[in-house]
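Box 3.1 — From sequence to structure: Cytoplasmic protein
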Amino acid sequence: MPIRSLPETFKGPGLTITAVMLAWAGLTGSAPDALALSDTPSGQALVGQNGEGSMERTPLPDPSAADPSGGWPGGEAMRHDPDGPVPEVLYDFDLLPEPVARMRRLIIEACRSGDLERLRPLIGEGPNATQLTLGPLEGNPIDFLRESSGDEDGQEILAILLEVMEAGFVHLNPGTERELYVWPYFFAVPLEELTASQRVELFKLVTAGDYEEMKSFGAYIFYRAAITPEGRWVYFVAGD
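Predicted structure (token representation):
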């Protein structure tokens, strides 16, 4: 599995993690440059494979699962409260509520298809659309994802999303209106406390150099994704 780094655009002399943060937050006035692979070697209907090898259609999430208040969390795809308790790292996807498991499955199927357009019905539109940037997003969300990818067809960003959704996860704010299931768990776990095996998992997403930079910054700031208990895909963002 290739290891992906933070955008190479932000790795020149004198550029800091703060520059990464501002750029990904949309504060530089332009969309983020395409993500580069590390130099380290290392229609609307989605389909799934059944056990006999034939194809079966997987239904899209029920639109009624969307938050009627619109737009939660309103741009707050920030890191978990560093002063709060560290949540348990989970790997058992059977623990996910059915709507969450369903949306995760649809995202993974879309990523594995290699077709960026298959994310469109999952992202949705309007105030309940999946948040893709910490700053304002104007225009087509699929075009935004394609432009954020290191290749012209968007397969790199699909690979990153796939790695995110296959990682361990955390369950945040259970029993509250802000309850979320978030991938990968690095979003909510102090980076300096990662075990050796957890660092191996992290290096599937970022380089060792990125890890040291993020430790200095104080948070994991690469891509993460969240789904509500009702199965709404809230965000897929990078930055802080």
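Summary of the box: Residues 8-38+87-237 form one domain.
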